[in-house]
Amino acid sequence: MNGDVRPVDLVSVVIPARNAETTIAAQLEALCRQTYQGPWEVVVVENGSSDGTRALLRCWRQRMPQLRVVDCAEARGVNHARNLGCRHAHGDFVLMCDADDVVAPGWMAGLVDALRTDPAVGGALERRLLNGPVALAARPPKKSDALLDTFGFLPYPAGANCGFHRELWNRLGGFDESYRYGGDDTEFFWRAQLAGYRLAFAPHAVVHYRLRDETRAIARQFYGYGRSHPKLYREFAGHGMPSSRPADAARAWWTLLVQTPDLVGPVDRRARFLAQLALRTGRLVSSARYRRCYL
């Protein structure tokens, strides 16, 4: 993994999509406005939508010649869709974004520039443009000046804004499809670093990130996140991932107890409370399942 500058003949953008009828057009329009001057393609993996996503994509294929659509209705899951998209992609550089976000004009150029010298890269997530107060209460904006580092172990990018060399994906055997929701991107980029691949940050590769804005959807998402954490711990504790601290868990549960009145309070407080309750509950359930305590 030397620092030589790599040429690139084609860039592939892989987008998993399921029930994205109301959002994917904005993402495709944003890709059409990219400042990157080299050749690129878009591979949308249609992952069993029940809305009008397929029909919308058929219309877009007439407008966007570099768009290809891959059917993936037989098996759902974001990592299954990512792997299928990578198998159908023709580029040596593979970039990933989501169907419900909007990439900034310099997104592709920013990731490609970083991939010329590093085999894997993540960009910045901007959370204010597409989200209202309820969504932002559940997931307050953070500084976007570095890769994510939630676990005090290794950094990682979000799957909604990342890129890598195809040979890296080949060597790792793709994304782990047992991670169906939560930890799906973290696990892949941790394995990459443990295999000796460098991971860079591209601050100018910005994605406007769309958050859940309904309390039930927020709670479901955070429950999935929580369930993935003991699984990550089971697989990476031997590589140095630290355990959760009992004092932190006790403090979090005590805070939830004190904040229980928020359940009947304003919707933004209710969303924030349910997000944290779901996260902690997911950790409890998964700790029992994997017999590895990560609370």
UniProtKB/TrEMBL annotation:
GO terms for molecular function: glycosyltransferase activity. It is an enzyme of class 2 (transferase). Residues 12-167 form the Glycosyltransferase 2-like domain. Gene3D superfamilies: Spore Coat Polysaccharide Biosynthesis Protein SpsA, Chain A. Its EC number is 2.4.-.-. Keywords: Glycosyltransferase, Transferase. Pfam families: Glycos_transf_2 (PF00535). PANTHER family: GLYCOSYLTRANSFERASE, GLYCOSYLTRANSFERASE 2-LIKE DOMAIN-CONTAINING PROTEIN. This is Glycosyltransferase.
